[in-house]
What we know:
MarR/SlyA-like, 3 strands, 6 helices, 3-stranded antiparallel β-sheet, DNA binding, DNA-binding, Arc Repressor Mutant, subunit A, WH-like_DNA-bd_sf
Amino acid sequence: MLAHVPHEGKPGPAxxxxxVLPDTSEAYLESLQLLERMHRLMLDLVKDEFERLRQSDLxxxxxxxxxxxxxxxxSAGELRSRGMYQGSNVSYNLKKLVTMGYVHHERCxxxxxxxxxRLTHEGQRIRHLVRELFLRHAQGLAMSGVLDDPPxxxxxxxxxxxxxxxxxxxxxxx
Length: 174
């Protein structure tokens, strides 16, 4: 059973017996912890790969911004809304990526306040490196059978449903 997890070594209150969570709630709480750990591990994997390739000028978060930007030309706001980045972090990282030559930016013709960004050739090269890393992982996971039970497409469908629920909760607040 999943009890309240203390934060950074601080003791946390245990759940009272009458507040015992149903199995689905426990599974949901565990999935939240797994999602957070998987995100950090993914960034560590990218960091290790870049260290191996001696690509030391980028942080893992910057590499993921390049990966998620892909072939699109978008505004910083659009990038934030489709990724996992905080507003100020996106602005800071985009500025760094432009300075380092990985991202090209230009003012939008229709709205001069808006800036559109897209990958440069060097940014596309980094995106390709990250994609190749993930494809190697996918191949290894597929060979081990990890992606078969339950099928990953069903896991993705469930995750998209949770994402949609969270989005609706955020919209409901405002």
